[in-house]
């Protein structure tokens, strides 16, 4: 029976990333960087995941990664030393090595690697990639698809520097063979570290066959700097957007939009330019999200019209055929069917029924300086422009509010509420 433990190497110090916390917990499309890798590790190994960290990032990583084992690499002595720290926590016949700062790797590539490893009956398999800019990467020396050696950039001769088949570091190996031989890896004279890729030369010299698969270069991009981060995020965004385009979502200017890892969009939705869609957002079919709108933690029903420049905040539901127009903010509210909130309004902590019109400049005054209060607007209510609804307050069905009113009491069913001071017109002529 095939069994495998995934080890995620995450003991780097993140010095080049220039952040106050570990780069591995920095958010990438709504998830910490390492969580993208961890999600794949869980699908491969379940609870058999070991994370090699350091004394500085262990608490941060423990706060976001559950159902795994943590081990500490006390000193930065290279990837060979890092994997050795996990040895006693690996209870499977085979071990998969991933990197916490390489979040673009795909499940399909890992499955392809495992399939190659099992079908060829070798002792180890590696993921490699080809690039037009190989500088900085270890190069693969191969013969007939047999991996003989990986040579690091600092040790390449003039001929080897022309090789464009590069090492990703992601590998699978039999546990016993791996750890019987990692102790043979010597310290690199220049970097003063022990490199795990050196294991392949040792395997070859002992007649333990190793091979490799190739994947797209993008999958192997690591994040060391903020420049790397922005490049990775752009690639991930394109993946998300391309996925939705294939099912019939129309992005008018896709490069200007931002999606989260868990965004859900149904068929025949139109997304205009500069739209930001944060976590826990669902957009149902036939809706349009207009330019410069910001959605977070919201469900948009079918055939809705949102924006331009609308902001809808968490725990909000917009039911079908409703309009949330320009410069409208919705927060923690349920908006019914066929509701029009066309422009310049704030609706917070409210329950709005069907067929409601909320005029421009209307505000639900939900906060009294101590706690939030609820506004209930029932079916078929009409609210005139520039009205203030002082919560807690209930507007019963079929009631109307005159423009410019401040509503401090419940409005009975079918009633008209108007609250205005008397108009005074004073002469501006100067007296002698």
What does this entry look like structurally?
The N and C termini lie far apart (106 Å). It is elongated and about 100 Å long. The relative contact order is 0.08. The longest helix is centred in the middle third of the chain and has 21 residues, at 226-246. The chain contains 7 helices and 37 strands. A hairpin with a 2-residue loop joins β2 and β3 (31-32). The chain has 432 residues and is α/β, with parallel strands linked by helices. A 10-stranded parallel β-sheet has the order 12-14-17-20-23-26-29-32-35-37, with helices on one face. It folds into 3 domains: 4-220, Spore Coat Polysaccharide Biosynthesis Protein SpsA, Chain A (Alpha-Beta Complex), CATH 3.90.550; 247-340, UDP N-Acetylglucosamine Acyltransferase, domain 1, CATH 2.160.10; 344-432, Hexapeptide repeat proteins (UDP N-Acetylglucosamine Acyltransferase, domain 1).
């Amino acid at each position: 029976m095939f069994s495998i433990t995934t080890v995620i190497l995450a003991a780097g110090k993140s010095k080049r990333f220039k952040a106050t916390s570990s780069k591995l917990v920095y958010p990438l499309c709504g998830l910490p960087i390492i969580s993208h890798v961890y999600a794949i590790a869980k699908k491969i190994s379940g609870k058999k995941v070991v994370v090699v960290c350091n004394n500085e990032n262990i608490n941060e990583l423990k706060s976001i990664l559950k159902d795994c084992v943590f081990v500490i690499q006390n000193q930065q002595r290279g990837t060979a030393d890092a994997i050795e720290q996990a040895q006693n926590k690996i209870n499977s016949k085979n071990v998969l090595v991933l990197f916490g700062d390489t979040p673009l790797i795909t499940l399909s590539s890992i499955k392809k690697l495992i399939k190659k490893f099992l079908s060829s009956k070798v002792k180890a398999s590696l993921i490699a990639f080809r690039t037009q800019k190989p500088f900085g990467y270890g190069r693969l020396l191969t013969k007939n698809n047999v991996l003989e050696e990986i040579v690091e950039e600092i040790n390449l001769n003039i001929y080897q520097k022309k090789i464009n088949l590069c090492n990703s570091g992601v590998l699978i190996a039999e546990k016993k063979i791996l750890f019987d031989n990692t102790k043979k890896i010597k310290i690199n004279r220049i970097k003063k570290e022990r490199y795990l890729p050196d294991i392949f030369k040792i395997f070859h010299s002992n007649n333990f066959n190793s091979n490799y698969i190739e994947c797209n270069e993008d999958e192997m991009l690591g994040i060391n700097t903020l420049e790397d981060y922005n490049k990775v995020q752009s690639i991930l965004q394109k993946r998300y957007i391309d996925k939705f385009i294939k099912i019939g979502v129309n992005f008018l200017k896709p490069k200007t939009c931002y999606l989260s890892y868990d965004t859900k969009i149904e068929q025949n939705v139109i997304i205009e330019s500069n739209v930001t869609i944060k976590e826990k957002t669902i957009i149902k079919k036939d809706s349009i999200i207009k330019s410069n709108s910001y959605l977070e933690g919201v469900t948009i029903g079918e055939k809705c019209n949102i924006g331009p420049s609308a902001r809808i905040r968490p725990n909000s539901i917009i039911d079908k055929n409703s309009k949330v127009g320009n410069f409208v903010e919705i927060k923690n509210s349920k908006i019914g069917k066929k509701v029009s909130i066309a422009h310049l309004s704030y609706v917070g902590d409210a329950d709005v029924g069907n067929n409601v019109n909320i005029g421009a400049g209307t505000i639900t005054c939900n906060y009294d300086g101590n706690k939030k209060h609820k506004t209930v607007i029932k079916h078929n209510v009409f609210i005139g422009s520039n009205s203030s609804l002082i919560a807690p307050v209930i507007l019963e069905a079929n009631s109307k509010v005159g423009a410019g009113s401040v509503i401090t009491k419940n409005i009975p069913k079918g009633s008209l509420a108007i609250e205005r001071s008397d108009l005074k017109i004073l002469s501006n002529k100067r007296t002698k």
